[in-house]
TrEMBL record:
GO terms for biological process: carbohydrate metabolic process. This is Beta-galactosidase. Pfam families: BetaGal_gal-bd, Glyco_hydro_35, SUEL_Lectin. It comes from the Eukaryota. Its EC number is 3.2.1.23. Transmembrane segments: none annotated. Residues 601-687 form the SUEL-type lectin domain. CDD domains: Gal_Rha_Lectin_BGal (cd22842). The lineage of its organism: Eukaryota, Viridiplantae, Streptophyta, Embryophyta, Tracheophyta. Belongs to the glycosyl hydrolase 35 family. Keywords: Glycosidase, Hydrolase, Signal.
Length: 687
């Protein structure tokens, strides 16, 4: 075997339970991946010294993250050596007969180095040390133009400046020795979802356009409960098949680039061409042995991959809850620490909890003017974030919270105080830790002040330096479908199942933004295509099956804001419907393979529908051969429609787990518009 193209995808293993890993890896293989990569999560593996970037390292004196800094380099070197040693002891590197063929050190450090200058020369030191660990496989970096030899730079080029496909191939022989390493590039799927933000998504067509030149795919990302994320999964699977059909040409020669946007790999025995139209306004036609339509800013992504519609089915009856209301914290309990001044929150909690109470007592003299005038004083609190609830004498006075772009917040409003001692209790909540950014070890959380009380006889009193100090059970539902909790009726807090954290919920923070039509022409960014505006940023919370006992499962909800726990439900995630959307005359992968073998029989495209195991097609919700419009879940007939479209699918598909129909006029009762390019759109219900 000569050179090969290896297509790699990423799995973040902490996002799923170990019981889910075998199935995820199998889905990666089924999707056309040859290699799986993963980060090694420092904070997960070493939450305390010796036991990522871990919280404890933030508070080692003199530490600056990701710089040429002694304490940081020492900690990073120790952790890197430990991980490499563990891999070597299990004989996992390729030179030991194992499966690991590449190692990466650091991640996307180049932009940080560019910003901070000389202190960023950590790379020249730490990366050469990594090479010296003797893994026997190549070391790579991401977004690092000055990676020291022999470390190879791998650019992240998903949004702008995409380079041709040949620059993203890893060419390796059958013995996995490097012949010509052009390090693989990485591409992102959608974008980050933030509390209070709409949900970004990236159309399969645009992702395929990038992957056609980057050859990468994300297998397990966002909340997909371990199921294939169609249409992206199916779309990329077919793209990977097409790339592998081109493999002999791609690894044999460098391309010839022509002005129409084509990169052609032409050897004596094979030819592969990548035709791309980068224009954001106009489509074009290319004629060689056949006519190919190139949509604006893309490639013909008419592979007919199946789309799916998620269905969440409530399990059993409503929960029967036991409710416990916690009083606002008191500064006189035994577990309270008394200190002068305001302290940074993460330094106190060390990420063991999201919450920290700040408490103090304020004495109001009986002769204060506001007690007679009724003009209540103004309490002003400045906090580094992320959420704050203010209690005066045990009563909630107000709530404020920040955002991802601006986590800092200010509470400023009139408060009811009485003559004598008033108890001020501030519940500060963090909703995560930073993992990227310049000097993010210096980013803080919690009430750092100042805290002032304005409107007293003395004017404004600064309090900054003062002395501060639900559950139910359920049984496991039958089946093996993924489970989730519907938390849309609640406000903000956390959820546990059998003592395991399901995560933070914040449905009360409604997503802002504009969710119009998705126009992804031109350079893609995560602001172009958004969903869930006016709704909770996240509604469903995955409960892994491996956490659930046959009966007596304990569900605990800690709720900060209040809500309706009776509306919380446990649901099964299943496929509600499947779709196909295919143009007539599109090339078939089998056609390409036959052409590669010297055969030129033309196979017409087919629409393939299949429901998951245990489900069958029960109904054809929509079918139209002609000029249908819309997308899966919202198809509608256009001005050209073959009236036997439904009949054809009902006869062939209903009652079966899978079926396929040829996309041809005779199947649907004739050509409804002979002079026009037609397509077929169909949606089938799975039950």
């Amino acid at each position: 075997m000569g050179r090969r193209i290896l297509i790699s995808g990423s799995i973040h293993y902490p996002r799923s339970t170990p019981e889910m890993w075998p199935d995820l890896i199998q889905k990666a293989k089924d999707g056309g991946l040859d290699v799986i990569e993963t980060y090694v999560f420092w904070n997960g593996h070493e939450p305390t010294p010796g036991n990522g970037i871990p919280v404890w390292l933030k508070y080692v004196p003199g530490t600056e993250f990701r710089t040429n800094n002694g304490p940081f380099k020492a900690a990073m070197q120790k952790f890197t050596e430990k991980i490499v040693s563990m891999m070597q002891s299990e004989k996992l590197f390729e030179t030991q007969g194992g499966p690991i063929i590449l190692s990466q050190i650091e991640n996307e450090f180049g932009p940080v180095e560019w910003q901070i200058g000389a202190p960023g020369k950590l790379i020249q030191n730490g990366q050469l040390r990594a090479v010296g660990l003797g893994t026997g496989v190549p070391w790579v970096m991401c977004k690092q133009d000055d990676a020291p030899d022999p470390v190879c730079d791998t650019p992240f080029l998903v949004l702008v400046g995409l380079t041709p496909a040949m620059d993203s191939t890893v060419k390796i022989s059958n013995q996995t020795k490097i012949i010509n390493l052009k390090c693989g590039q990485k591409t992102g799927l959608d974008g980050y979802t933030e509390f209070g933000g709409s949900v970004p998504y990236r159309p399969a067509e645009d992702l395929a356009f990038s992957v056609a030149r980057l050859y990468r795919m994300v297998v397990h990302c966002k909340t997909i409960y371990g199921l294939p994320r169609d249409p992206k999964w199916g779309h990329l699977r077919d793209l990977h098949k097409a790339i592998k059909l081109c493999e002999p040409a791609l690894v044999s020669v460098d391309p010839t680039v022509t002005t129409l946007g084509a990169h052609v790999f032409n050897s004596k025995s094979s030819c592969a061409a990548f035709l791309a139209n980068y224009d954001t306004k106009y489509s074009v036609k290319v004629i060689r042995q056949w006519t190919i339509d190139l949509p604006l800013d893309g490639i013909p992504v008419q592979l007919g991959a199946q789309s799916t519609q998620m269905k969440m089915t409530p399990v059993g009856s409503a929960f029967s809850w036991q409710s416990y209301i916690e009083e606002a914290a008191s500064s006189y309990t035994d577990d309270t620490t008394r200190l002068d001044g305001l302290l940074e929150q993460i330094n106190i909690t060390r990420d063991a909890t999201d919450y920290l109470w700040y408490m103090t007592d304020v004495k109001i003299d009986p002769d204060e003017g506001f007690l007679r005038s009724g003009q209540d004083p103004i309490l002003t609190i400045f906090s580094a974030g992320h959420s704050l609830q203010v209690f005066i004498n045990g009563q909630l006075s107000g709530t404020v919270y920040g955002s991802l772009n601006d986590p800092k917040l200010t509470f400023s409003q009139n408060v009811k105080l009485i003559a004598g001692i008033n108890k001020i209790s501030l519940l500060s909540a963090a909703v995560g830790l930073p993992n990227v950014g310049l000097h993010f070890e210096s980013w803080n959380a919690g009430v750092l002040g100042p805290v002032t009380l304005k409107g007293l006889n003395e004017g404004t009193r600064d309090l900054s330096g003062w002395n501060w100090s639900y559950k139910t059970t359920f049984d496991a539902p039958e089946g093996n479908e993924p489970l989730a909790l519907d938390m849309s009726s609640m406000g903000k807090g956390q959820v546990w199942v059998n003592g395991r954290s399901v995560g933070r919920h914040w449905p009360g923070y409604i997503a802002r933004g504009s969710c119009g039509d998705c126009n992804y022409a031109g350079t893609f960014d995560d602001k172009k295509c958004r969903s869930n505006c006016g709704e909770p940023s996240q509604r469903w919370y995955h409960v892994p099956r491996s956490w659930v006992n046959p009966s007596g499962n304990l569900l605990v909800v800690f709720e900060e804001w209040g809500g309706d726990p009776s509306a919380i439900s446990l649901v099964k995630r299943s496929t509600g419907s499947v779709c196909a959307d295919i143009f007539e005359g599109q090339p078939s992968l089998k056609n390409w393979k036959m052409i590669a073998l010297g055969k030129f029989d033309h196979l017409q495209p087919k629409a393939h529908l299949w429901c998951p195991s245990g489900q069958k097609i029960s109904q054809i919700k929509f079918a139209s051969y002609g000029m249908p419009q819309g997308t899966c879940g919202s198809f509608r007939e256009g001005n050209c429609h073959a009236h036997k479209s439904y009949v054809a699918f009902e006869k062939k598909c209903v009652g079966k787990q899978s079926c396929s129909l040829t996309v041809a006029p005779e199947v649907f009762g004739g050509d409804p518009c002979p002079d026009s390019l037609k397509k077929l759109s169909v949606e089938a219900v799975c039950s």
